[in-house]
Design a protein that fits this description.
This protein is α/β, with parallel strands linked by helices. The chain is 63% helix and 9% strand. The protein has helices spanning 13-18, 21-24, 28-62, 65-114, 117-122, 125-144, 146-167, 169-176, 179-216, 218-223, 227-280, 285-297, 299-326, 391-397, 421-427, 442-447, 455-464, 490-502, 520-536, 546-549, 569-575, 577-584, 590-606, 611-614, 623-633, 638-642; strands spanning 348-355, 368-375, 380-385, 406-411, 414-415, 428-431, 508-512, 538-542, 554-559, 562-567. The strands form two sheets. A six-stranded mixed sheet has the order 6-7-8-3-9-10, with helices on both faces. A four-stranded antiparallel sheet has the order 2-1-4-5, covered by helices on one side. Bound molecules: adenosine-5'-triphosphate (ATP) and magnesium ion. Magnesium ion binds next to helix 14.
């Protein structure tokens, strides 16, 4: 579930927004210049009442048309200057602020890549997406508009009041009177609004998650006829968001109403008082005109404060949401000072490894405890265990997708915790149960396993993985595979993932049931080729089926979070009831099937296959294969089907 910090009201919007400074710093000169230009432009508009005063008391009173035309010309020039200055301001900020947004987004993306897998297990992707899009857009808008105009409008209001007081201080006081209730109201509003704004932004995140999940899972949604219930879930969430947004609008409308009507009342009062004074002769008509038009010119700066504050509040929330991700600790780097532990031998060694998922119930037993296993250099060990026994978890510890919570893992005697992550990931290659591909070309997906791989290596990897179907694709290696590789079959995806794992000819190879989606024919071919790769690496291969187990020199049985037994397949079949049960299931075709697979392997390995043979093609193309497949998978594959 997404982490949502409790809705806090003690948060200071200013303190949140100040965190943006490092990003704004590079463009500060432009931003300050822009603010200065805007203040200048805004103050120009305050000169207009002074010109009016001069016109009313001078040319108008003297009935001098030439003077009136001159005044009109001044007013026109002032208007043009103001417009030009505001345009200049916009030009000043547009480009640098797009840059700020881009660099914040890039930082967020970089951070997301570096955050531990445990973080991604915990956070809904929609919450991350909405932070990278809506929240950042809000921040750019905030820097471009509300931030500047909060400053500009405050400055304008101050200058305006100085002018008002200079013209007539009693009328000035009348206008100033509403300031106190307004300030109180605004601060009350801010507190309330920040809570609703945060809620709305989180709900956008939840909504994004639902949309994303149902788009990615469209096959399941359709296949199970779940579109109605998905739509219901979506409607419920969007109703919730709508209610929140309405609450926001209500708050905003309330404050807006007060902010506009209270000053209006004050201006009305000043108008009445002023007119009486003009009638008394204690005030010139020109001064009253100037006073009132200054007051009217200040109306916009005062009124806009309400929604500027609202936007600032939302931006503060967006900043908080952004930094919630940025503040999460990255994957720990290399630990130093652990070299005191006695050195282990070469190969891959697990010593008393214990692991517990970070968000697991602290009272529950760890997923893995006291794992001791020594894989000798060049050796392949098959990891076998019931579903949920922790095989995937154990394999994820080797490339440090999760950190061990006890014990250590060494590669050629070196503790992986003390290795630079980049070095570790050069040493170890992985292929997981779920073959994840990216929306890129086939070639790019494969070379992801080793950026500097040349064409020969790619071709070799493809042939090891029996992925030569690639050459029959419309554009070969340059074919785009579509989002998550969904334009390929499950088995094709799995073979590409395998090619990616072996392309860099890694010293250590970790394969999590890499052949589960292949038909027996293709599986046999992959196994034959894989056997040659495994000869040269030290490997752990998670296996569910006897045929995969036969790739390994030894087998380790994972049970109850420990390595319950280690031995050859035959030894374990003989001595270990659980292993025999796992491998044979209801029938006992396991070992026999295995032997057959080996024979097949040998034959296929020697026969020099033609490309047509190598790709087993879609299931059903060979009826005999289909039969075999059905028989072979009956029991061991139960869990395969539950995946
Ligand atoms: N991200 C996670 N957070 C918390 N618990 C998890 C997480 N991933 C797996 N688990 C738990 O850890 C245990 C081991 O899961 P794991 O995926 O390692 O099993 P497995 O042996 O690979 O099973 P399978 O054969 O079905 O692939 C399970 O009980 C599972 O519920
Ligand atoms: Mg697994």
């Amino acid at each position: 579930m997404p982490e949502k910090p409790a809705e806090r009201t003690d948060r200071s919007a200013v303190r949140s927004l100040l965190r943006l400074w490092p990003y704004v710093r590079p463009v500060r000169v432009r931003l300050f210049t822009a603010a200065f230009v805007a203040i200048l432009a805004s103050c120009l508009s305050l000169v207009i009442p002074l010109v009016l005063k001069w016109m009313v008391d001078g040319p108008v009173a003297d009935r001098d048309p030439g003077g009136v035309w001159l005044g009109a010309l001044y007013l026109l020039l002032l208007g043009i200057a103001e417009a030009l200055l505001f345009g200049f301001r916009r030009w000043l900020v547009a480009r640098p602020l797009a840059g700020v947004e881009a660099s914040m987004r890039a930082d967020l993306y970089r951070r997301l890549q570096r955050l531990p897998v445990a973080f991604h297990d915990r956070w809904a992707s929609g919450q991350l997406l909405s932070r990278g899009t809506t929240d950042l857009m809000l921040l750019r808008m905030f820097l471009a508009f509300p931030l500047t105009f909060l400053v500009v409008n405050t400055a304008t209001i101050l200058v305006g009041f100085v002018l008002l007081f200079a013209q007539d201080w009693t009328l000035g006081l009348v206008l100033l009177a509403p300031a106190v209730p307004l300030v109180i109201l605004c601060s009350l509003f801010e507190t309330k609004y920040s809570v609703v704004a945060r809620r709305a932004q989180d709900q956008v995140g939840d909504l994004t998650t639902v949309v994303e999940e149902s788009v990615l899972g469209i096959r399941i949604v359709k296949g199970f006829g779940r579109h109605r219930s998905q739509a219901r879930a979506f409607t419920a969430l969007s109703h919730r968001l709508r209610t929140t947004e309405l609450g926001k609008a209500r708050l905003l409308a309330g404050i807006w109403g007060l902010i506009t009507s209270i000053p209006e009342l004050a201006i009305g009062a000043a108008l009445v008082l002023g007119t009486i004074q003009v009638a008394d002769g204690s005030l010139s008509a020109g001064t009253l005109v100037a006073f009132l038009s200054t007051a009217l010119a200040l109306r916009w700066p005062v009124e806009s404060i309400g929604f500027l504050l609202a936007m600032s509040q939302e931006s503060a929330t967006a900043t908080d949401r952004y930094f919630e991700v940025m503040d999460v600790a990255e994957e720990p780097g290399a630990v130093t000072g652990r070299e005191d532990a006695p050195a282990t031998g070469p190969g891959m060694v697990f010593e008393g490894v214990e692991f517990r998922y970070p968000d697991a119930d602290p009272d529950s037993p760890p997923v893995l405890a006291g794992i001791d296993l020594h894989i000798r250099p060049g050796e392949t060990v098959a990891l076998v265990g019931g579903t949920g026994s922790g095989k995937t978890t154990l394999t994820a510890l080797v490339p440090r997708l999760h950190e061990v919570t006890g014990g250590r893992i060494t590669l050629d005697g070196e503790d992986i915790a003390t290795m630079e992550r980049s070095h570790l990931r050069e040493l170890v290659s992985v292929a997981f149960e779920e073959p994840t591909l990216f929306s890129a070309t086939v070639g790019e997906n494969v070379t992801m396993g080793a950026a500097d791989a040349d064409e020969r290596q790619v071709r070799r990897a493809l042939s090891v993985a029996q992925a030569d179907f690639v050459h029959d694709l419309p554009r070969g290696l340059d074919t785009e595979v579509g989002e998550q590789g969904l334009s390929l079959s499950g088995g094709q995806r799995q073979r590409l993932a395998l090619a990616r794992a072996v392309v860099g000819e890694p010293r250590f190879l970790v394969l999590d049931d890499p052949l589960s989606a292949l038909d027996v024919h293709t599986e046999t071919l992959v196994e034959a080729a894989l056997r040659r790769v495994l000869e040269r690496t030290t490997a752990v291969v998670v296996a569910h089926r006897p045929s995969t187990v036969m790739l390994a020199d030894r087998v380790a049985l994972l049970s109850g979070g420990r390595i319950a037994a280690v031995g050859t397949h035959q030894e374990l079949m003989r001595d270990n009831a659980e292993y025999a049960w796992l491998m044979s299931g209801a029938g006992d075709g396991g070992p026999e099937r295995t032997e057959r697979a080996c024979e097949g392997t040998g034959a296929a390995g020697d026969a020099g296959r033609s490309p047509g043979d190598e790709d087993a093609g879609p299931p059903g193309r060979r009826p005999d294969d289909e039969e075999e497949r059905g028989a072979e998978r009956q029991v061991p594959a139960e869990e395969g089907s539950s995946r």
